[in-house]
Amino acid sequence: MVRAYFIFLLVAGMFGALLSNCGSRTATGASSSEPNAFEKEKAYQAEVLQKGYEVNDDSYAGQDVVELERQPDGHFYADVEINNIPIHVLVDTGASGIALSRDDARKAGLATSIGMYDVVGEGAGGDVKGEFVKLDTVRLGKQTAREVPAIVLDGGQMSLLGQSFLRQFDTVEIKGDKMVLR
């Protein structure tokens, strides 16, 4: 009797797991038209590449130069202002966007859900989970971008500054142990 009960629970659990993976359905039984996480990221990247973001620089001639020193770990870091809050980030020229740790997102005043179930990318260890957000402002030196899409990573420890902001600069050069943003 006990064995039959455990088998019943096992089958019921498997059935429930299958149903939860089926996705939401509309009243007619068709799949909902809500885009998945990969489609959202693709849309954000397309928006970044096509539209760009409003740059607030008073005059091009007055644009300052931001110089970053390579750190002992081989990376470049910057102190940027996100939503007018200073955040220490890793400058990642190979990243398409901005990724924030949960702690940095909280500092910047971003509300995130307790459980981040959206798959926002894939890493060496498998699916990367997080949440899509839009930053009011991102500032480094005299360059400011508004309404910049970003991702808050569920397990990330360090925030990354990628191309969705770096493209505000005309040039990004690495010369020896210096990164120069103009």
SS summary, helix count: 4
Question: CATH class, anyone?
Answer: Mainly Beta
Q: Report the principal-axis shape.
A: globular
**CATH homologous superfamily grouping:** Acid Proteases
Number of strand elements: 10
- Low-confidence residue ranges: 1-32, 51-61
Q: How would you describe this protein?
A:
It is a single chain. The protein has helices spanning 2-20, 37-51, 102-107, 163-166; strands at 66-69, 77-82, 85-91, 98-100, 118-123, 126-140, 143-153, 159-161, 172-175, 178-181. With 182 residues, the protein is of the alpha+beta class. It has a single domain (35-181), classed as Acid Proteases (Cathepsin D, subunit A, domain 1), CATH 2.40.70.10. The strands form two sheets. Strands 2, 3, 4, 5, 6, 7 and 8 form a seven-stranded mixed sheet that branches. Strands 1-10-9 form a three-stranded antiparallel sheet, with no helix packed on it. The radius of gyration is 21 Å and the shape is globular. Mean pLDDT is 75; it is low at 1-32 and 51-61.
Keywords:
Cathepsin D, subunit A, domain 1, TIGR02281 family clan AA aspartic protease, 7-stranded mixed β-sheet, 4 helices, alpha+beta, EC 3.4.23.-, Peptidase_aspartic_dom_sf, 10 strands, 3-stranded antiparallel β-sheet, hydrolase, globular
